[in-house]
Amino acid sequence: MAEAASTETPSLSEQYLLKKKDENSDVGSKPLEAKEEVKPETAISEEKAEEAPIAASEEKVEDTTAAVAEESTEINPAAENNSDDASAVETESSETVEQQNSDEQEAADEAPQIKLETAPADFRFPTTNQTRHCFTRYIEYHRCIAAKGEGAPECDKFAKYYRSLCPSEWIERWNEQRENGTFPGPL
Amino acid sequence: MIVLEWLFLTIAPCDAAEPWQLGSQDAATPMMQGIMDLHHDIFFFLILILVFVLRILVRALWHFHYQKNPIPQRIVHGTTIEILRTIFPSIIPMFIAIPSFALLYSMDEVVVDPAITIKAIGHQWYRTYEYSDYNSSDEESLTFDSYTIPEDDLELGQSRLLEVDNRVVVPAKTHLRIIVTSADVPHSWAVPSSGVKCDAVPGRLNQISISVQREGVYYGQCSEICGTNHAFTSIVVEAVSRKDYGSRVSNQLIPQTGEA
């Protein structure tokens, strides 16, 4: 019942979550890496377009890109000043200097790299003792799997909950017990 | 210098114990603030009672001194005073009990959904911390042990028997759920600044919810006799901003997932 209510209205923690969410919650820095790969090329290509009339041969273009790289290191502090929120790590990681890019970085910074989300407070377990909470979530997941089939997306949240709540040592033990058929719970 | 210490004018980190400390450490959570406020409220009544009782005591000793007044008045009954001294002492505990229970239950209650669950698992004699909110499989993705730095390895500025090698990093101004348990014998996870002391019992998960209000480093110690190295099982919580927490966790996640 409590779960049904929680699915309808966003919980407080969800409301307080920072607005922009990354799709892949596990490793948030992946989009950043992708950006790093893309940005230098775009910057260079723009510079290339400017330098194209002057630089005729391919080798000269190579030289100019090197020059551009040097310039970018010079202009970098200015870009840092412009973007207030850009953290030092981000600016170091991206060597590009375009103003637009720094704006994009700000947006990327505002979004949390990892999603701050965990098992919600459960009204079945309002006390300090959360042992049964963990156990129940573990059983709920495996019953869900049994009912909906392996890898059913609606079971993922239970997996997330029991992983958040149970010590990994317990999970390992229970997994072994399930394999051996000695798990004490109602699966 | 010693005089200064007596006067409590030493400069010491406010989130760790200091020599000759009498008061509590600075509050980092609303819970600890509530505890300190309750303490001060109760102390008001406590001092009133103390003064009153002392006055009666001294007055009695003074006026009924055996040389000055060898034969005291032989009063055995006084209805008014008996009513008063029954009713007033029963009202005073009520003034203490009401805010005390309010605080107790508000500490116990989890009002909002926590954003992060951290598992603090006590071992003889170190602590293991698990951040499992970001797992995608049963393999533990972010787990580390936290040992107290031995006295010989301390660097300048580090507190003896308080500093650990791996601190627990938590985001500030975020609701945290800390699941406290133990793998061997009972331990206790206690951080005075956050107003938390929770026993770690093997086979049982105890939940505490805190919300650290300011960034900083908070020190605590094991508070349940857990064996020989009980004194060398300290706790360090480092509260950082949410953004730093995110980058810290994702930085630690990447190498581990790379290995796996």
Explain what the structure shows.
The complex is a heterodimer of chains A (187) and B (260). Helices cover 63% and strands 0% of the residues of chain A. Chain A is an all-alpha fold and 187 residues long. Chain A has a domain at 130-180. The radius of gyration of chain A is 25 Å and the shape is globular. Residues 1-7 and 21-112 of chain A have low confidence and may be disordered. By secondary structure, chain B is of the alpha+beta class. Chain B has two domains: 30-70 and 77-108, Helix Hairpins (Orthogonal Bundle), CATH 1.10.287; 116-253, Cupredoxins -  blue copper proteins (Immunoglobulin-like). Chain B has four helices and ten strands; from the N terminus they run αααββββββββββα. In chain B, the strands form three sheets. A five-stranded mixed β-sheet of chain B has the order 3-2-1-5-8, with no helix packed on it. In chain B, strands 4-10-9 form a three-stranded mixed β-sheet, with helices on one face. A two-stranded antiparallel sheet of chain B has the order 6-7. In chain B, strand 6 (187-191) and strand 7 form a beta hairpin. The longest helix of chain B has 34 residues, at 30-63. The termini of chain B are far apart. Classes of the chains: A mainly alpha (187), B alpha+beta (260). At the A-B interface, helix 2, helix 7, helix 8 and helix 9 of A face strand 1, strand 5, strand 8 and helix 4 of B.
